[in-house]
Amino acid sequence: MRRSAARSRGDKSRIDSVPGNAASVQSVETVDIVPGRLTDSTWTSMLSQEEGEEVLVDIIAELMEEVMDRCYQLYLQRQLIPFSVWWAQNNLAETLECLLLRRDEGDDPEHELFWQED
Fold it and tell me: What is the rounded distance in angstroms from the CA atom of residue 8 to the CA atom of residue 1?
C-alpha cells in the first residue's frame, strides 16, 4: 500500500506540473519591425537604451567641460608669475638698452681700402 501511495503522489505531482507548463506557453502576437530580425519590443528596448546613453553622454560632456575649464584656470595661475617675471625682465633690458646707447664711431676710411675712391 505504501508503494501505491508513493506512486500516486508522484503521479499527482507530475500531473500538476504539466498543466502549468502548458499554461505558460501562449501565442503572443509580435509586430516585426524588420521581419524575422527585429521585433517591436526589441526596437522599443533599443530606443530606451539609446536615450539613456544620450543622457549619460550629455552628463559626461558637461563634467569634462567643467574639469577642463578648472585645469586651464590652474594652468594660467601657475604660469602667471613666471610670465610676469619674464615680461618685466625683457622690458627692463630693452629700456636700459635705449637709455645706455653707445656712440657708433663708424669705420675709419684710411684703414678700409674698399671705402676709397677709384
Answer: 11
For residue 89, what pLDDT is reported? 97
For the chain, which ranges sit under pLDDT 70? 1-30, 33, 107-118
- Tell me the three cell numbers of residue 114: 674698399
Angstrom distance (rounded) from CA 33 to CA 43: 7
Q: What is the DSSP letter of 103?
A: P
Q: How far apart are CA 36 and CA 49, in angstroms?
A: 22
The answer to pTM > 0.85 is no
Residue 33: burial class (beta carbons within 10 Å; 0-12, 13-18, 19+) = middle
Place of cell 625683457: 90
